[in-house]
């Protein structure tokens, strides 16, 4: 069942009819990710070693690209590569989508989380208790869990982001949301910050070594 897959092999008692929630989830933009080998792990050392090989190509490099020198070859990571790898929509983000919106009484927020802090752990716990009669709610929570767990960002590591609650209630808006653009922007910002920190660390090391050389003289 997709409940087990989505929760990265955590024990789950969810039972949803294959005719509704499971099929609908697989038909959506995120359905293909359920077929990844799980648990899915991010190889931090691979990313770190790539960042150490960042190069600057001032004549052709765009603002939303990172280039790496790999031996005699050069490799690029940008929107095009992210789109090809993720298969997610790379359209324009709607204006003011991060603004707080009113939550309706029929929203899953009101039914399950209104008097609670909407943490990812709480969302997991409630998701695991749903039954076949909760198909619509299970589908919405599955979407939220996919965003919170698989597309994790610094701002959404522990709590479900407020702007997601009204979005998940609008099936068409959620399906057409530019997830690729949003996740790429967050990922690219993180990579650039990490690369800049690495450069600063190297510069600090060089200055310390220069200082030692001056002391020896």
TrEMBL record:
Protein name: DUF1985 domain-containing protein
Source superkingdom: Eukaryota
Record-annotated DUF1985 domain positions: 59-188
Annotated organism of origin: Dipteronia sinensis
Classification via InterPro entries: DUF1985 (IPR015410)
PANTHER family (alphabetical): DUF1985 DOMAIN-CONTAINING PROTEIN (PTHR48449:SF1)
